[in-house]
Specification:
- The structure is a single chain.
- The protein is mainly alpha-helical.
- Helix content is about 80%, strand content about 0%.
- It contains 18 helices and no strands.
- The longest helix has about 35 residues.
- The protein is globular.
Amino acid sequence: MCIGQLGNLLPHVTLSANLAQHLMPAWGLSAAEGGLMASGYAFGYMLAVPVLTTLTDRIDARIVLLCGSMVSGLATIAFGIFGQGFWSGTLIWSLSGLGFAGAYMPGLKALTDRLPAGDPSRAVTLYTSSFSVGVGLSFLVAQVLADRWGWRTAFYVTGVGPIAMVIACLLMEGHRPAPRTGRLLNFAPVFANREALGYILGYGAHCFELYGIRTWLVGFWTFVVAHQGAPSWLTPVVVSFVFAVISMPASILGNEAALKFGRHRAITIVMITSACVALLLGLSATGPAWVLALLLVVYGLTVPADSGALTAGMSAAAVSEHRGATLALHSTVGFGLSALGAWGTGAALDAAGGPQSASGWLLVFLVLAAGIASGPLALRWARRHQERAAA
């Protein structure tokens, strides 16, 4: 499943990786337009995931996973063929995100349906943290191909990646969920589960920050190289790849810390630390390149360190007969705020002077810090509600 997910994630940031250096100049886009086009992926995901993930409570998640993977790959290839500007690019990239809605959380459901009884947090964390390796490969492959053979080639090649998950689905044994009655999109039991809801809202704050920085990481380092200089080997390709890949051990270690010290405490510490690092990056935007590189490494550790713990906490808190609906709301909130993060940071960049302005990048990181700082508030709200209910 993790290997299949690497293939499914190969298209994931192909647009973001080439946005600042290729697509915005070629199509004359502003930062807000570029951010909105990138957010189309998360928006398409958000629209489809409630139906597709809740559907896994009624049919084998493998079927949804198979279809979603195929749509994601085909839409990515279509972007390379038919993408001509803002509107066509946004529409096609939204279709790719819609396909991924059938590939990520239904994939997690397909995995957990086939795990033995017991605490699944380590398996869930390995699956969610392999997301980071897939994103790192997407950053690497997309930029290398675009720099050598053009950005359209990057979409053609990365669009083939989901074949890996198609093969995994074909090798997987079938699983028939227990019969379900009632409406398909019934989220009332999920909203009533305040413990799970706290993790879901915290995940939304995490996704806002994560998608915001992934959308503009290449653009930020391009700004650093242009204004402060950097060693020749420290290119946007290297920085974005390292930033993404170190997310996997960070997520695993974050979950281990949550198991040892308690999920709420560990997640809160990580989120507050991440907000502080974002503020330092914004304030140091005109500082030496080596300082910014070190801060980005630290940020690459703090941004994903809460991901596995949040998803594992949500999965553990979910009532078994409503797990698909809980996963659906988790993903809907997460990618809805991902779309807001990509567009909001782009709009902030435009408002404060654009991609060549230090003040623009300061405002971007202020927005990211504010977004992740809301996560501990959501967790505290859920805990206080539980304490009152227990009393």
